[in-house]
Model the fold of this input.
Amino acid sequence: MVYISMLLNCRNVFQIRQVHTQVLVIGMLRHLIVANKLLYTYAQHKAMGDAYVLFAGMRERDSVTWNVMIGGLAKAGDYMNCFGIFREVIRCGARPDNYTLPFMIRACRDIVDLQMGRVIHDIGLKCGLEPDHFVCAALVDMYVKCRAMEDARLLFDKMQNRNLVTWTMMIGAYAEYGNAKESLVLFDRMRDQDIVPDKVAMLMVVYACAKLGAMHKAIFIHDYICRNKFSLDITLGTAMIDMYAKCGNVDSAKEIFDGMQEKNVVSWSAMIAAYGYHGQGRKALALFPMMLRSGISPNRITYISLLYACSHAGLVEEGLQLFSSMWDDHGVRPDVKHYTCMVDLLGRAGRLDEALKLIENMTVEKDEGLWGALLGACRIYGHMDLAEKAAESLLKLQPQNPGRYVLLSNIYAKAGRWKDVAKIRNMMMRRRLKKVPGWTWIEVDKIIYQFSVGDKTHPQSEEIYGMLQSLSKRLELAGYVPDTNFVLHDVEEEVKLGILYTHSEKLAIAFGLFATPEGTPIRITKNLRVCGDCHTFSKMVSAVTQREIIVRDASRFHHFKMGACSCDDYW
Done:
């Protein structure tokens, strides 16, 4: 016991080695409790080389020995030896326990090895350890990090006692990996089970609201934060700025921003970005000198937000000035994201030759976002040669991204080059790539409804299509002519009209007109860029119905009011 006490008092590896020498000389290493304590002390001081030498020489080992080695190697990030030791455990017939398995599962999580994670899970099942809270929680975490959400959810639903950490993990995972709606469902379930969220959980929920654009839920979450006296510090305040901005309410975002007692560069950048999403470039630029006067220096994200705002408001000269001065004035070296903003800025303004020259002269490595911005500009202006050059570079970088093929196909379709459209689609079929389907969401009475093109799954489909028919007659009288150029299929004009008539955003707007109170804004969110005909349709609907329509698409916000859009048809 004297030597165990000595090990407890060791402050560094040199002292541990001195004790090691003493116990070795007097033969105390034959006692397993002493050897294990020495092993543990090495592991605690991250001296895994010394620990491994001691471990290799031990004639007797028990579960503590194995666990100390596996835990120590896992914490040190030495996953190869960690898995090697675990294999020895299995080979020698020892049973892993609820200490060993969580370490192995977390190792699989850290290296994102789903296949090995499933193997460890099977071992846990055979040992009867899956129901154990620590094992199950580690498995859920591993599956989440490996994006195997079905496996994670299956285990999560089986857990008898879910703690706040596990709930937060699942809420955050759904928000991160594309099902923000389920994040909010889980948040409600968590509260129903009397689990009190902490600030981390609230951050995940705020993030989910931002992803989904759920305004009513955002207001509820804001109220919940206030009622439960969560401090609106930099982290939570900044997240709420982003939430309100992405829910279409930039004024509420500004109220949060103005109410924050402390702001950092992230807070300022978030508010600048908020104005950028909504096409309010002048307001975004006006914040920049205010930020500098407050003593906050800009970073790369600040400049991305500023350049993005310039791009979406057509502020070409202002964007060029910012880009040319960012290094000289504030020591921020332009990276590929800044160049991408500039290509987008010049491309949207029709200055495609300047955009190409900028790409050719840049010294940083080009990425898919850069070529994607150029290809998007080519789509607007029908520049075929440049589109093919951009697409060639893109497809080399992202051969498995279906969106790139679809964009090029759409450019060909717009030009009437149907043979080239067929060639692109055949290439996609050979590579087993599928176009990402378009979806539109609308929140009504705290329920989020989802529509796809031609959707008839909604229980009120009859009323929705009836409203569309009625709208079409009113819009025709007001001068609306459907633009079938946005139906990129080689089909008859009548078929094109039918497809155009049932775009998902039109269905969502029609539903919103009779399902929401008269005079209130209709807010919809789309996962893709809104098409030109739906843009015109939304403008005219806002005029004939006297309703504001707020559309968040994959690129920005559009506020339709009295027959005009906040983007000034520049998007």
In short: Residues 409 and 421 are 5 Å apart (CA to CA). The first helix runs from residue 2 to 8.
